[in-house]
Amino acid sequence: MILQLAWRNIWRNPLRSLVIIVSVAAGLFAALAVLALYDGMLISRLRTVIDTETGHIQVHDPGFKDDMEPGFVIRDRERWADLLDKDPAVKYWAPRVVSSGMLATPSGSAGVQVNGVISGKEMPVSGLDRKLATGMAAGGWRMADSGSRRVDSGRQAADGESWMADSSLGLNDGRSILIGRKLATKLKLTLGSKVVLTMTDKDANMVSSAMRIRGIYESANTPLDEVNVYVRGTDLAEVLGVPGSIHELAIILKSDDSVSAVQHRYSSIFPGDKVESWKELSPETSLMIDTVDIYSYIIVIIILIALSFGIVNTMLMSVLERRKEIGMMSALGIGKKRLLMMVLTETVFLSLVGVPVALISGWFAVSYYHKNGLDLSGMGEDLMKSFGYESLIYPTYPADKIPAIVLLVFISALLASIFPSLKSVNIKPAEALQK
Amino acid sequence: MNQTVIDAHNISKVYNPKTIPVYAVNNVHLHLVKGEFTALVGPSGSGKTTLLNLIGGLDRPDSGNIFINGTDITSLSSSQLVKFRLKNIGFVFQSYNLIPVLTARENAEFIMLLQGMTKSERDARIEQLFRQVGLEGLDKRRPSGLSGGQQQRVAVARALATKPQFILADEPTANLDSKSASNLLDVMYKLNQEENMTFIFSTHDQRVIERAKRVITLVDGRIVSDTAEVNVTEAHKADG
Question: How far apart are CA A307 and CA A415, in angstroms?
Answer without folding.
Answer: 11
